[in-house]
Amino acid sequence: MHQQVIPSAATLSSTVFQTRLGTCIRCGLCLPACPTYELSRTEMEGPRGRIALIRAAADGRAELDGAVREHLDLCLGCRACETACPSGVEYGFLLEGAREAIESRRKPRVVERFTRWLALRQLLPSPKRLRLVAWLLRAKQLVGVPQLVAAIGPASIQRLAALLPPLRLRRTGYGQPAPAHGERRGIVAFFHGCVQDAFLHQVNAATIRVLQRNGYEVHVPRSQTCCGAAALHLGEAKLARELAVRNVDAFTGRYDFVINNAGGCGAALKQYGDLLRDTPVPETARSFSAKVRDISEFLGENLHSPPTGRIDGRATYADSCHLRHGQGVVEAPRELLWKIPGLDLVELSAPDTCCGSAGVYNITQRETADRLLDVKMTDVASTHAEYVV
Question: What is the pTM of this model?
Answer without folding.
Answer: 0.88
